[in-house]
Amino acid sequence: MTQQPIRFGLIGTGRIGQVHAASIAASPEATLSWVADPFVDGAHAVAARYGATATESAETLIASGEVDAILIASPTPTHVDLIEASLRAGLPVLCEKPIDLDIARVDALRPLVASTGVPVALGFNRRFDPNHASAQARVRAGEIGDLEQLIIVSRDPAAPPADYIGVSGGIFRDMTIHDFDMARFFIDDIVSVSATGTRTFDAGAREHGDFDTAVATLRAASGAIVTIVNSRHSAIGYDQRMEAFGSKGMLQVGNPLQNTVVLSNGHAVEARPPYPEFFLERYAEAYAAELGEFVKLVRGESSTSPTFEDGRAALILADAAQRSAETGAAVAVEL
Amino acid sequence: MTQQPIRFGLIGTGRIGQVHAASIAASPEATLSWVADPFVDGAHAVAARYGATATESAETLIASGEVDAILIASPTPTHVDLIEASLRAGLPVLCEKPIDLDIARVDALRPLVASTGVPVALGFNRRFDPNHASAQARVRAGEIGDLEQLIIVSRDPAAPPADYIGVSGGIFRDMTIHDFDMARFFIDDIVSVSATGTRTFDAGAREHGDFDTAVATLRAASGAIVTIVNSRHSAIGYDQRMEAFGSKGMLQVGNPLQNTVVLSNGHAVEARPPYPEFFLERYAEAYAAELGEFVKLVRGESSTSPTFEDGRAALILADAAQRSAETGAAVAVEL
Amino acid sequence: MTQQPIRFGLIGTGRIGQVHAASIAASPEATLSWVADPFVDGAHAVAARYGATATESAETLIASGEVDAILIASPTPTHVDLIEASLRAGLPVLCEKPIDLDIARVDALRPLVASTGVPVALGFNRRFDPNHASAQARVRAGEIGDLEQLIIVSRDPAAPPADYIGVSGGIFRDMTIHDFDMARFFIDDIVSVSATGTRTFDAGAREHGDFDTAVATLRAASGAIVTIVNSRHSAIGYDQRMEAFGSKGMLQVGNPLQNTVVLSNGHAVEARPPYPEFFLERYAEAYAAELGEFVKLVRGESSTSPTFEDGRAALILADAAQRSAETGAAVAVEL
Amino acid sequence: MTQQPIRFGLIGTGRIGQVHAASIAASPEATLSWVADPFVDGAHAVAARYGATATESAETLIASGEVDAILIASPTPTHVDLIEASLRAGLPVLCEKPIDLDIARVDALRPLVASTGVPVALGFNRRFDPNHASAQARVRAGEIGDLEQLIIVSRDPAAPPADYIGVSGGIFRDMTIHDFDMARFFIDDIVSVSATGTRTFDAGAREHGDFDTAVATLRAASGAIVTIVNSRHSAIGYDQRMEAFGSKGMLQVGNPLQNTVVLSNGHAVEARPPYPEFFLERYAEAYAAELGEFVKLVRGESSTSPTFEDGRAALILADAAQRSAETGAAVAVEL
Questions:
Q1: Which residue of chain B has the CA closest to C134?
Q2: What is the mean pLDDT of chain C?
Q3: Which of B143, B177, C288, D289 would you call most buried, defined as having the most Cβ atoms within 10 angstroms of its Cβ?
Q4: B195 burial class (0-12, 13-18, 19+ CB within 10 angstroms)?
Q5: Confidence band, pLDDT 50/70/90 cuts, at residue B276
Q6: Closest CB from C249, C258, C273 relative to B264
Q7: Which residues of A touch C199 (CB under 8 A)?
Q8: pLDDT digits (tens, 9 = 90+) for C251-281
Q9: φ and ψ at residue C185, rounded to 5 degrees
Q10: Hey, which residues does B54 pair with through a beta bridge?
């Protein structure tokens, strides 16, 4: 508390970058010092709002000497180079998921991460959602005995633009990757992946050979089985639920409600208002908590931040799911 | 089980009489022997369906020598005389509520009930509803500590015809009387009643100076307070809920649902299908259980049937509520 | 209504046979005429209770001339021969699932079924559950648009004895077969199956090389994906839920509750009483409705009874799931 | 937005004063300039935290010339004098409820409020709770037709210290006053009050002749009836629910949940975690929204802030309830 706030350098000022800027500004333990974006107008706008310095060059930001930690919120293909540059400057990194779409590039970076010892955290925000976090803590505490089955339902309100689909790496690397990490948050000994994907409604998925509907089944060495159900659209709004079934009971995570008002009439009873729109609304608290844990990591305190290795593991699972969905065969993984 | 079934004489073959006829026929411990109704076609129809003998005369039925117990489902003004005739014949009675609309007539009958020792049970079916019964048993078992507050919400789907309102004795004696008995099912030391009634939507209530909307507050010697909220109509269907609040927790009884299906879409989420229509659907199980307890009473076994005294107590509370709603003053009662 | 009741010959008087005997006895449109069981004491007990004739020989029952329809509730290996004998006697059959564990025997029987035109219905009782049936009807009515995903969760309270596991044909043919039929109740163009099974807690499963935990993923030609999640045990009681996700909304089927009472205290709030124990309690209504539809089938009326072909399709899916779980590869099916 | 933030003078730095200080600091439209408390250490602590000036004298604060609006969070007996001083200085006031415990003092202040035209808002925070506010807006929008019944359940986690009870003015003026305002938020033509109070568990209530359990029934000119159910303790945590029943449907406001996780096991199913502790947690959002509406009022914009007249009306209802609970007679009110 009496420590100096961590001075952040934020790289990337798109939608998610702005969320992080706001979290940093709201935290008493963090301050936004520098902002970089090749689209320099964006950098200037964010910098002005929070009293930071703007630049179009991430290199300039990293070399400024005025930042204690880097937050990478730029497009995926830039992540590996920016992590590397940060590590070489000795700066801890909180990087948005995924590390990269190509596991070879991730593996090439791995020795540097290991040798420098500088912390690299991955932006798996959902681990910090109070609902998921509470469920996980209660499972770990043994409240439902041995965990035998995990069902994760994850549906986005609407498919992204076709252009984005084309560079996204496919539904498993782009969307399911959050669910793979969530699976590992609960179960860490996954040994094989089996997946099925179809394209039923989204023109972008069809155009780029991607799936808009997908199911992945993960088998753990313990015999536990994880089922992930995804859709690129959802008429009911952002749908992120979970069910952890154990030998002694079951914990379920539901969608949060806009408010507690329920309506009954002659057509239906106990109807609730629609779910909150999308992840920025739903996971606002989670982003703040994620930042708090990363600050602890930077300060060398005990922290629950997911790491580079967690990011790599999720990508391996996504690759395996993609291959399984294409071949119809289960794919063994080593994480 | 190996005992002979109880032979029932059913008096009255209107809607509720037919319900009781079906319950008797379905029970392995009861059989329908005689049916009486001055509207003799109704008696014949019911008798034919279940292989009983029909008559237009209740006296004939009581004197037949072929019935072991009487079930009175005829109009309220006939109840007192029919109970008296049954008792003089030594026949146990299950009588629909209320005993009478006039407490003087009830009190006049009281000594005979006491002196004969022949059981008289009252048709407070709701005590046998599995939901209310479970809540009451759990309260009695101490699950919520001392019972401090009871809220009973009771709303009929639609107001009865204006003609019926005119002879009903008013909302408190006709409708709330069930809730007064429910209150006593949970709390037996009620000492005063305060009530408020208004007429807001029902022409029949206005025509006959009755209320269509009412609230009654009962104070117990223990300090517990019961609140009863009534309406003669309900756009959400038959609405019968309860909340028992105690020093250690709270038990709530909700409305049963038609089925377990819930709908979510962009307008509302987790919406349930409408509640079942009315008391015949909702309390079908309760009527069967009520009969079962009465059979035990007839056989001299331990039974939870509400008694003549329970019927009298509910009427005293209804009278007090009526007076309070008219005068604005709380009315003390001795039960 | 004015038609003569259908005279039933019941073969098999174990647990499920007794359920059917009770359903037949309770139906105004059916009567139990003959009962057969090689364990003739069981046959006599059931026959005595409902006024039927008992025999140890199914052949005698079929040849009696006193039955209009056959209900087969004997062990699975006898089903094919009994169906054949009934068909040759011109008697419609309601047969418990599965037809047989060996698709070759089912296929061998198929031409006879087709050529005689005598109705053969399969005992997929869950189609008649009011909850599942309501959800299916609403999906068919277009309430959620195009059906894109179906999640079926199905968990038995406790694993059967190891002996039973040994002759059960394995979890997919014994337990999941109900879920395969449920999948086809909603989606009829399934083209491939992928499955994962593990053994984590049940000694019987381990002993016989069976699974106690399983997930199956079915792909439809339309692109819809069905996910089935099974466990041989469930600490929360019999757990049978479903979620139908469509382009316009979602319908979910929950577990029925014992009653509507909820408890709140300092430890937890809005807690409901445990789910009903097992299928006899949960699906009591469904067995009655199943019989009603079979009666219509026997009478040549329009009926929703699942057929021999439905029984065969479910077995093909079970076989495919078994192979997929063993090999790790998705298996194409033609139904 | 481009307007200067309103400079607030906060009088009183107890628990609720600190909540308001935090809300002011968090709002981009408000700033905390001065803080007054005769317990000057408290004033200094709050002032230091938010960069304000501290004083022990409310008069000094009001006369500072550096505040645009006054927030009164001092003990109830000081409210009337502080409102008067603020008005004479031309400063708009947001005053915590109640205005005073003595309606005579409130009435004596009334002409000044009317003649100066300077806004006086009352701190009925619950109107700004998103749950209650949504329900009220939907009722006003006609979603449930004519409002016929309102049930308000309001229970505090634990009774306050006996000393506080002694100066609180009694449960109706201290606690129910919020519910009286909530009733008027929905229904503004209340004409009479009937109340029942008991003392069953709280030594402080017994010592000071107060009630710990209370029910109030309000009758509206329209015939609508409001029922308020209060307890000074609640084993289930802070319990604030509502049910608005209308001619076309019903809206219910439930307690918010800590998170969306539900637990099922062999003892109970679908159990939720305990409710949030008390009003500071539950109504955090409401306090911020309350401040926002007051800022609008100060700026002369359209605002939904409850007014001095609302504060007076709630006190009249509380007085009437107190008299009714003491005499047993309904009390007519003119608001």
A1: B261
A2: 95
A3: B177
A4: buried
A5: confident
A6: C249
A7: 223
A8: 999 999 989 999 999 999 999 998 877 777 7
A9: -60, -35
A10: B35
Question: Residue A1 above 60 pLDDT?
Answer: no
- Candidates B264, B277, B282, partner chain A, best to mutate (most A CBs within 10 A): B264
Q: Which of A155, A231, A258, A270 to mutate to test the interface with B (most CBs of B within 10 A)?
A: A270
Residue D304 shares a structural domain with residue D192: yes
Query: Taking a C-beta distance cutoff of 8 angstroms, is the pair D134, A259 a contact?
Result: yes
Q: What's the average model confidence in pLDDT over D215-239?
A: 97
User: Are A189 and A99 contained in the same domain?
Assistant: no
CB contacts of D196 in chain B (<8 Å) are 194, 217, 219, 225, 330
Cβ atoms of A49 and A315 closer than 8 Å: no
Distance CA A238, CA C81 (A): 53
Chains contacting B (3+ CB pairs below 8 angstroms): A, C, D
Interface check for B250 against chain C (CB to CB < 8 A): the answer is yes
In a domain, B36, yes or no: yes
Q: Are residues D135 and D176 in the same domain?
A: yes
Q: Which residues contact C104 (CB under 8 A, 6 or more apart)?
A: none
Contacts of D215 (CB under 8 A, 6+ apart): B149, B217, B225, B227, D195, D196, D197, D227, D228, D229, D230
Same domain membership, residue D196 and residue D275: yes
Residues of A whose CB is below 8 A from D262: 251-252, 254
Give the A:C interface size as CB pairs under 8 Å: 117
Statement to judge: residues A239 and A328 lie in one domain = yes
C-beta of residue B185 within 8 angstroms of C-beta of residue B135: no
Query: For D8-23, what is each residue's pLDDT tens digit?
Result: 999 999 999 999 999 9
Q: How confident is the model at residue A2, as a pLDDT? A: 56
CATH number of the domain encompassing residue D310: 3.30.360.10
* Domain of residue C17, CATH code: 3.40.50.720
Which tops the pLDDT comparison, D284 or C271? C271
Q: A297 and A196: one domain?
A: yes
Q: Where does the pLDDT of residue B183 fall: very low under 50, low under 70, confident under 90, or very high at 90 and above?
A: very high
Mean pLDDT calculated for residue range D242-253: 98
Q: Which domain holds residue D75?
A: 6-118
pLDDT tens digits, D17-56: 999 999 999 888 999 999 999 999 999 999 999 999 999 9
Q: Give yes or no for D238 touching C (CB within 8 A).
A: no
Total domain count, chain D? 2
- Nearest chain C residue to D237 by CA distance is C266
Q: Is residue C249 part of a domain?
A: yes
Select the residue from A261, A263, A285 to test the D interface by mutation, using most D Cβ atoms within 10 A.
Answer: A261
Same domain, C187 and C321: yes
User: Is D213 a domain residue?
Assistant: yes
State pLDDT tens for residues B57-67. Answer: 999 999 999 99
**What is the end-to-end Cα distance of chain A in Å, rounded?**
37
Residues C311-318 have a mean pLDDT of: 97
Reported as a single tens digit per residue, the pLDDT across D108-137 is 999 999 999 999 999 999 999 999 999 999
Neighbours of B163 (CB within 10 A): 11
Interface residue B223 vs chain A (CB under 8 A): no
Q: Residue D55, SS3?
A: strand
* C200, closest residue in chain A (CA to CA): A223
Q: Which residues of A86-111 are buried (b: 16+ CB within 10 A; e: fewer)?
A: bbebebbbbbbbbbbbbbebbeebee
Complex ipTM more than 0.90, yes or no: yes
Q: At which of A83, A118, A153 does a domain end?
A: A118
Residue of C nearest to D157 (CA): C266
- Cα separation, C34 vs A100, whole angstroms: 71
For residue C198, the chain A residues in CB contact (below 8 A) are 219, 223-225
Domain boundary among C118, C139, C167: C118
For residues C64 and C167, state if they share a domain: no
